[in-house]
User: Fold this.
Amino acid sequence: MTTNKSSNIAKAPRKLSLKENYALMTRDLGWQPSYQSVDKIFPHDHFEGIKIHNWEGWEDPFRLTMDAYWKYQGEKERKLYAIIDAFQQNNGQFNVTDARYINTLKLFLTGVSPLEYAAHRGFAIAGRAFRGVGPRVACQMQAIDELRHVQTQIHTISHYNKFFNGLHDFKHMHDRVWYLSVPKSYFDDAMSAGPFEFITAISFSFEYVLTNLLFMPFMSGAAFNGDMATVTFGFSAQSDESRHMTLGLEVVKFILEQDPDNVPIVQKWLDKWFWRGYRLLTLVAMMMDYMLPKRVMSWAEAWEIYFEQNGGSLFRDLERYGIRMPKYHEVATKEKNRLSHEAWATFYNYTAATDFHTWVPSSQEMNWLSEKYPETFDRYYRPRFEFWRERQQQGKRFYNPTLPMLCQTCQIPMIFTEPDDPTKICYRETEYRGEKFHFCSDGCKDIFCDEPEKYVQAWLPVHQIYQGNCFLPDADPTAPGFNPLAEVLRYYNLNVGHDNGDYADSPDRRNWEQWTGRPGAPVEEEEVGKAA
Amino acid sequence: MSASQAEGYAQTPIVFIALQTNDESRRIIDAIEADNPHAKVNAFPAMVKIDAPGRIVVRRESIEERLGRAFDLRELQLHLISLSGNIDESDDEFVLHWRTA
Assistant:
């Protein structure tokens, strides 16, 4: 019996270890070209000045091979779509806290989902550019992941489009609507850089350093607000994200270990992409503090956990390569108690031209903000919201009809305040070839000054509107009574009176109350008092 | 978090692993807790974030004991949300660590 068993084992093919399996299924897929030089096949992996001496030094710590990849991704997809089916069959969209919550999905679908598609393209391009097999396989998996993410997000959110406004044309809007140029230009900037900068920007600076601030609070927020469908696509995407983050850390370590000359180049990219990503996360900050009816944590708390604490540990680990914390990280920390308030006030101003609604926070919500921001909210922001609420109660809801000045780099309106003075708007400017350019911060100004020929080409929505480039072909600016704002909204394919404006008198709110019989927003204590 | 807690964390670089909460991951979280007595499990809606100074180890055997079946550590991919730290993965262990710790 015993002899029999051991001889069976001896005959059975030995199972490969994870490491051997990875080597065979990854490195072994590469080959030496015979009739073209390697430099000619991969012309893009050296012009940035990065020196790689040994591509074999690349380590993929997850050691995921394509066969395992398909197996686990397939399982993730089956789980996801089963939940989405159940969600739709059970009218899950009516189980969210209130219809204000849906506005976070509008922001996500128009602002983030198209970035997933951009990432798919970006990684396909980067994968082609690297001569090492390890990074090529990792980029290929990530390109497929990103395509999966955009598809699952569209499938999930399309269900909400049947019931709520503003979700009907996300791709068109992503390419046109003023504030969406912020995420769009961020990715365009990365994709138009070289392959090493792209991967440092997206895999490391965005995915490793900052993406936790987007997905963790957003998905936890979705769970807290009863949005099972979004939690599901979010976590399904996020499970891939761990692999992407690991790629990000690995790629930076790999580049740094290859040659000391790479260190200053990488540091410059880390400085740039930290600041670019941080500015982009302004949208997340206001989502967390103002748009989720039930809040998980404040932006400032998330910043402390995910950047100050986790990011701090990461950069200490990189110190041995001669890498320091990204430039202006201390400015971001100074801004943590104001960022979301400054952003939401801006969107409150300009909500006539957005595909989602804004509102004044309820009294209870303002109290939450006072508690989370004891040094700033009551002092700087509460009086403004109370004034706006008062105006609104008098039937004079404030809509700003002018167009804001934009930062040439991040494309956000110039809304941020001086690092050391929250009452003074921060303006920076520089001259390039006889023209003046404006910036929201030293961080954005430095980025411009390093590559002015790139950023002078920025498609700034406000400039484009003033130049007459944001009208449909049949618009006639010479016609009597021509209304430029109305024409711009038509160009955005925004359904005026449905998609835009204050939430208080939106069809979304009316529909919600009719369909669910529940209040569309928290009932104010004073109103309850008055009624009694 | 209080200022003193934040200072405490800043002294030893922390690693973390965040997992979705579901029937299977509950056993994985149990196993991680048992193998890493120095770790702190923070619950959030639909997820947990496990923080630990310096190092976290996820052991295949500990998970298998709790799940009552064979477990390939790559199955972690199905439940992972995020992590931080250098990764060292073998057939038996999935380790997160900072070299500065």
